[in-house]
Amino acid sequence: MNSYHTTKAVIAFGKAAEDASELNKPIEITKFPGLIVRPQKDLNDREEEPKFEGPSKGTIVLSEFEEKINEILSFTISPVNHNSKSDANDALPKDEETSEDASKSSQSEEEDDMIVKPPNVLIYTDTIDTGKSVKAVLRKVLDPDRYTIYNLTILNLPKNTWVDQVALVVVCGNIMDVIADRFVEYIIHGGKVLSLCSNMLHKMLPFFKTAEVRENELVYFSYGEWKRVRMMHDTFCYQASPKRNGFVENHEDARLPSLNLPESTSVKDKKGNSHLFDVKILGTEETWQNPSILLATLASSGGKVVFSQIHLERDPVEYSRAKKLYETLRENDDARLGIISDLLSTHLEMEINRAPAFKGYSLGYLLSRNEDLKWEMFKNLKGLTEDHTLKLGALTIRFYTSEEIHVTVTDVFLPIVTHYKFCPKNFSPQQYYQYLDTRELGQLVIYADVLTSSMYAMGARMKHGFAIIPRQQTHGRGRGNNVWLSPIGCAMFTLQVFIPRNSILGKQISILQHIVAVAMVSAVRSIPGYQAINLRIKWPNDIYVGKSTKIGGLIVQTLVDESRYICDIGAGINLSNSKPTTCINDVISRYNQKHQTKLEELSYERYLALVFNQLEILLDDIEKGNIQHFYSLYYKYWLHKNASVTVLTLNGEYQEAIVDDIDDFGYLRVNTSIMGVGTKISVHPDRNSFDLLQGLIIPVIEEDI
Predict the structure, then answer these.
(1) More confident residue, 695 or 554
(2) Are 478 and 417 in contact (CB under 8 A)?
(3) How many CB atoms lie within 10 A of CB 561?
(4) What's the whole-number average pLDDT of the chain?
């Protein structure tokens, strides 16, 4: 079976599982007659785990399906060299830099291709409910300014792109061997895994040969400073041989000596090479002295996996129907959170949430150096009621003339102070307007210390150039379903621009995101003395330091009316926050140390004003017919000139190619050869499921060179 049909098979499986969960009934898998996926049940109602069943040959059908999954998951992970250098000279036009600037730029690029811990955490679980439980506990214990948590599905696993973009993978529940093999390979190449009540334990530590099935067993166990904690043991109790006979309520069996487990174990990779893992017991179930938490470490790569046979992911509320059990688990819940926090920080090198509790949302302020702009917007704002309330879907805003507002600010209601006498404490309008040099962009602003998302506060038709600037967001939005982390120090905005459909840009509106990316980089690199600060553009819409570290990105949402495009540009970039990766001011500081310069760090207000300045210059130039100014800056800043990539063609075949440029609509163009004929292919992003720096892209248009 070729990769195209194999992919179709896996998609059919995923669709059936989704439908079964949504419709709450068994669903037959398309293309596999007789193979059925059952819906999941609530933890308190489940009598048995969801399973596949078929007619008399159900087992054979399942085996065939596992073989198909095995086909699509076949892979070899290559370790990623975070210190690899891009060829900066290929990306930078020679006629736009002095030799001194070029030298400094090259030196800066060298120092900024640093190793930075990736900010993503992936979850792979055997049920949807389990995934929700794991995500909930991780959100409680991990640093919210450092990590974004995603679900990893069987459809994402074949794509190698996640491998070097994650700080941790959490596996929970029983998984197929072929999937376990993929995670083992990831660990061997330096990955970190937390395995919660999973058969991954037996897969990697084969001396745990037996598994006794025990339902709802509440046990005592100890780990570190936490002694005799009451927790739920996994249904499958993996034990090193010899096998114990069963759990006991008292300590009559405690006199049995603990097993002397091997201090190391050999694990083979996909090529058959052996790797020696050190094994250490971290926590023990007290009744039998059976290991409940273990650590396996591969010294040669730094790969680590922590195994827990205790349900650290489950909140006591999941057992609320069993009153006595619920009360016991609730009494031990602080210990549960403390244990998983310590495992993550001490053994898996993760950063834990030590911030104070969220204090709530804040007032908004309508800012302008020309009060007439405010009244002009109110006059033309459709949907504004007599009491100055505007409903925006996920958010309702109301304009007030005073700070004396006797209402509560919530995630769905934002009061906005309009009078010029009232100014926010954490944003300086004076400094912002000092640097702002535009006719329209950014002249009228709503500022708030904390918003859900600035995109939620933008109406369908506010005003050309209208901006929303939050200090912090709780639900920042990235491209597709991605989440953008927005800690304090991240410079964020949503900007609305109107583009006439019959204008030069209107006829190729999809390049707007690239124009904004140039403005975000040029806001820094256009300042005299800052030309060599190594901010770069990764196609299609990410901002990087050097080649290895993402610090920003943007999305553009567009509505169309009779004569214009209404574009909401949402952008964020790490300005003065070192988490989750690094930031602009850190780069400036390192540059100063390296080159003995005294470049000033950029304030929040100055940077945002400079972005709007640069964007208006670019938009004006394009409408005057000078689109080459944009292209020259774009190719100066981007990462990909002459990069070697592999194109996944529409028929499922792989083709080597060389990156050339972007076309009039912003699609990436690559040069390749098909059947000996030189061909230029325009390609598009696969909703962030690929990584161009890893060299995998997907084509949409082909044309002869």
Answers:
(1) 554
(2) no
(3) 11
(4) 78
Integer angstrom CA distances of residue 191 from 78, 166, 182, 357, 412: 12, 8, 11, 31, 39
What one-character DSSP code corresponds to residue 453? -
For the residues of 262-324, what is the DSSP string, one character each?
-SEEEEE-TTS-EEEEEEEEEEEETTTTEEEEEEEEETTTTEEEEEESB-TT--GGGGTTSHH
Q: Which amino acid is at 673?
A: S
CB 555 within 8 A of CB 512: no
3-state secondary structure of 427: coil
3-state secondary structure 562-598: CCEEEEEEEEEEECCCCCCCCCHHHHHHHHHHHHCCC
b or e along 349-368 (b: 16 or more beta carbons within 10 Å of the residue's beta carbon)? ebbeeeeeeeeebbbbbbbb
Q: With the C-alpha atoms ordered 415, 421, 422, 427, is the resulting torsion angle positive or negative? A: positive
As a whole number of Å, the CA-based R_g of the chain is 28
Q: What is the pLDDT of residues 443-480, one digit of tens each?
A: 999 999 988 888 887 876 889 999 999 998 887 654 44
Phi-psi region of 529 (alpha: psi -120 to 50; beta: other; left: phi over 0): left
Q: Contact, 131 vs 125, CB < 8 A?
A: yes
Per-residue model confidence as pLDDT tens digits over 216-266? 678 888 999 999 999 888 876 666 655 444 444 443 443 344 456 788 899
Percent of the chain exceeding pLDDT 70 equals: 70
- The dihedrals phi and psi of 543, each to the nearest 5 degrees, come to -110, 130
Residue 466 CA to residue 484 CA, distance in Å, equals: 22
Q: Which of 135, 152, 129, 199 is nearest to 14 (CA)?
A: 152
Q: How far apart are CA 36 and CA 94, in angstroms?
A: 62
* Phi/psi of residue 478, nearest 5 degrees: -110, -170
Give CA–CA dist 307/193, Å, rounded: 9
CB 518 within 8 A of CB 535: no
Query: Dihedral sign, CA of 355, 358, 361, 362?
Result: negative
Burial class (CB in 10 A: 0-12, 13-18, 19+), 504: middle
pLDDT digit string, tens, across residues 326-338: 999 999 999 999 9
Peptide bond into 242 cis (omega under 30): yes
